[in-house]
Amino acid sequence: MATLGIDIGGTNLSLGLVEGGKIVQGIHCPSFRPNATLDETLDYLSAQIRILFLPGTEKIGVGVPSVVDVKKGIVYDTQNIPSWVEVPLKDCLEERFGVPVAVNNDANCFAMGVYGNYPADAKPETLVVVTLGTGVGMGIVNEGKLFCGANCGAGELGCLPFKDGILEDYCSKKFFTGAGWDSRDAADKAKEGDPDALLLFDEFGQNMGALLCTVMYAYDPTHVAISGGIANNYPFFRQAMEEYVRAHFPYRKAIERLTIDICTDDNIPILGASLI
Predict the structure, then answer these.
(1) Is the pTM higher than 0.70?
(2) 63: nearest Cα among 52, 51, 73, 53
(3) How many helices, marked H, and strands, marked E, lie in the chain?
(4) Two domains, one topology: 2-109+268-275 and 121-262
């Protein structure tokens, strides 16, 4: 069965034709112009879909950075796409291509992509995927099914109060910017053994420990997968994060049973969209 997975971002669109859990053909292209009308964006998206859409394509899955009515496939207030205030995306694409269309938040799609990457005989019972980038994204897969909540907002733990802001301020690129650093520069300096950069990542790890404790209280996962650009720097903040969790999370057995994985495969958003 061929499924078309689509990841819509403010900067890029990524599309892939997926068969047997693998992308057999894919394209990456610029996202919509900021001043594009809704009709122009839908025409542009449809044009990219037609490049990959084959007669045997049975389904289209779309991940978008916004709140989604999952049942109706309506997208609301999409980040960085001004014309997408309320878009019946499922109906629009089903009318144009004549196949079932599923729409979900991009973090949820990413979580499904990570889940799909685990071997068939080692699927996590409860998986929380934390994406560290410009902000903090989160998706939850329980016994193979996405947990989205009533308004596709489950997992927005980055919005919880923390220190003088919210967790997202301290567990994303915003933390480094607030300290006067670029996250990539900080990583480069840390690789060189720069003490200030290493100390910065140590503090970041403590913040991540607080986030991880919150995830464990909220969802009691068997597995947590950390993804996004900052996940590449895991060796620099792993120890501080683990020490914080051991010091502050009271349930020792839950810590012992928790598996933490790092996942940075660029194809995951497409694979995840194909699975929703």
Answers:
(1) yes
(2) 73
(3) 10, 15
(4) yes
Query: Could you confirm whether domain 121-262 is CATH 3.30.420.40?
Result: yes
Tell me the average pLDDT across 246-250: 98
Instruction: Determine the average pLDDT of the residues in 214-233.
Output: 96
Q: What is the Cβ-side half-sphere exposure of residue 55, based on CA atoms within 13 angstroms?
A: 0
* Helix, strand, coil % in the chain, rounded to nearest 5: 45, 25, 30
Distant-in-sequence, close-in-space partners of 252: CB < 8 Å, separation ≥ 6: none
Question: Helix (H, G, I), strand (E, B), or coil: what is residue 22?
Answer: strand
pLDDT at 153: 83
Please state the domain extents for the chain: 2-109+268-275, 121-262
- The pLDDT score that the predictor gives to residue 94 is 98
2-109+268-275 belongs to which homologous superfamily? Answer: ATPase, nucleotide binding domain (3.30.420.40)
Q: What is the pLDDT of residue 201?
A: 98
